[in-house]
Amino acid sequence: MVSIKNISAFVAVAQSQSFADASHRMHLSQPALSSAVKKLEEQLGGRLFSRSTRRVKLTPEGAAFLPVARRLIADLENAIFDVKQLFNLEQGLLSIAAMPSFAEGKLPSLLSSFGYAQPGIGVRVIDEVMENVIQSVIEQRVEIGFSFAPEDNDLVDFTPLFTDEFVLIMNEAHTLNQVENLRINDLSGHAFVAMNRGSSTRNWIEHTFEQQDLKVKVAAEASQFSTIGNLVASGLGVSIVPSMCIEQMRAKGCVAKQVDGLNIVKSVGYITSKEAALSAIASAFISTLSL
Fold first, then answer.
1. What residues does each domain of the chain span?
2. What is the pTM of this model?
3. 145, 148, 154, 157: CA torsion to nearest 10
């Protein structure tokens, strides 16, 4: 294997046209420098210099190899510089997946605080449903995912940040908006706007209703809380969403209320892959997280 040390020795001699000058520049003894050049010549299969008592001159093969050797050294120096910048957080890319409700609500302030301190770091955010956030982390398309706590997943680590209590949303004209102290039984018989079947949120809500022996009258389904909010605001029905969606829902014209007996409280936090080490950028961002 040709070493970069031997290539550097060759370039230094070629530039100085003197083993004495080159050894001084590289802080090597002349025997060590001569040995490095000789080793390189043996590895390449021929002489790179023609030597005389007064000067050192490149052979045709040495002259052909010189620009290649310079480029190899420059590429290595650039690569080392780039990696140092990554470790020093001077450049790089932070890749994140987040549930839309988290991406719209809490994530911007977290990224803003981090970005002020690390202006050379780019950020890529994928907002997708909980199940896709987890899959993006598992497949290492992103380093960090913000999600509810995964259920029965041994491929990721979850660190909780806060708990979220789900609430009922409706439009202002809905009859349930006139009820002061809502109980879960009050929801029976009302049209419901639900998350798509198979989603964790849908399963949590249906399980809660089944425990109370209540029937869900699904009027519409959607895959995003934003769409659910629009449907509820239009009067299509009521729905149940995480508390972190409340401001988003109010902006759409919905009213949010707590419901006695609903009792859907879930941990929200970040997930990372158990199979991949975090970059310096991702680790630095995680160290800033506080809600």
1. 4-87, 92-163+267-287, 167-263
2. 0.71
3. 50
Tokens 């001699």 — which residue? 13
CATH architecture of 92-163+267-287: 3-Layer(aba) Sandwich (3.40)
Which of 117, 109, 125 has the alpha carbon at shortest distance from 88? 117
Annotate the chain with DSSP letters as a single string. ---HHHHHHHHHHHHHT-HHHHHHHHT--HHHHHHHHHHHHHHHTS-SEEE-SS-EEE-HHHHHHHHHHHHHHHHHHHHHHHHHHHHTTSSEEEEEEE-HHHHHHTHHHHHHHHHHH-TTEEEEEEE--HHHHHHHHHTTSSSEEEEEPPSS-TTEEEEEEEEEE-EEEEETTSGGGG-SS-BGGGGTTSEEEEEPTT-HHHHHHHHHHHHTT---EEEEEESSHHHHHHHHHTTS-BEEE-GGGHHHHHHTTEEEE--BTT--EEEEEEEEESSSPPPHHHHHHHHT---
Please determine whether the domains at 4-87 and 167-263 fall in the same fold group of CATH: no
Domain 4-87 indexed as CATH 3.40.50.300 = no
User: How far, in Å, CA of 17 to CA of 92, rounded?
Assistant: 41
Residues forming beta bridges with residue 266, ordered by sequence position:
164
* Spatial distance between the Cα atoms of 195 and 6, rounded to a whole number of angstroms: 64
Q: What is the mean pLDDT of each run of 10 residues along the chain (291 residues)?
A: 88 88 87 92 91 81 92 85 71 88 90 76 89 93 95 90 96 93 92 92 92 88 93 96 94 95 95 91 88 57
- Copy the structure tokens of residue 141: 């398309």
Beta bridge partners of 50: 57
Let me know: does 59 contact 48? Beta carbons within 8 Å. yes
